[in-house]
Structure formats: C-alpha cells, structure tokens
Amino acid sequence: MKALTTIGLLILSNSFMIIAWYGHLKFAELKWFSKLGIVAIILISWGIALFEYIFQVPANRMGFKENGGPFSLIQLKVIQEVITLVVFAIFTLLVFKTETFRLNHIISFLFLIGAVYFMFKK
C-alpha cells in the first residue's frame, strides 16, 4: 500500500511541477497572462510549485526504506524521473497540440522503463 501511495503522491507532485515549469508557455496565449512580466510569471510558477513540494516531500518520506517504506533512495529517484517523463509526455500531448512524438521518443521511453526494471533487479 505504501508503494502505491508513494507513486500516487509522486504523480500528483510531478503534475504540479510540469504545470509550474511549462504551463506558463501555454498560459502566454491568455491575454491577461501575456501582459505579465517575468517576475510575475516566476512568482505564479513558484506558487504552483509549492503544491509539487506538498506532495513530493511526503512521498519521499513515506516511500524511503529507512522510514519504513518500500524503496531505496536510488529507486525513489528513478521512479520519480520516469513519472516526470510520463506526466510530461501526457501534458505535452494534451496541452501543446503542435508537439508530436516520434519513434526515437518512444524508444527512449522504453529504455527508461528498462532502467526501472534493472533498478529493482537484485
């Protein structure tokens, strides 16, 4: 159960991270947002990123083996990176309609899945 909760929290965390890091590129299409300066955009992104940390910190604490969780520190990091890329891919396809995924992108994702497999191999 801790493993699924950890992964769920990491998915939520990374969803907010992707919006904070890349959402402003799409939000620029909104008239009121396009008039904002870089400082305002940074502050809005920080506000969104706060929610990333609200989910990331408990996920890592709960998931970390030394705190009674199922994952080593390295396993947590690899899981987090794969989740980041999956969430980013979904976000890109849904929000940025002009982006397309090519075969080399799919192959790189398969290698990441392989990385997770080997990370958990004893």
TrEMBL record:
The chain crosses the membrane at residues 7-24, 36-55, 76-96, 102-120. Keywords: Membrane, Transmembrane, Transmembrane helix. The keyword Transmembrane helix applies. InterPro entries: DUF486. The keyword RNA-binding does not apply. This is DMT family protein.
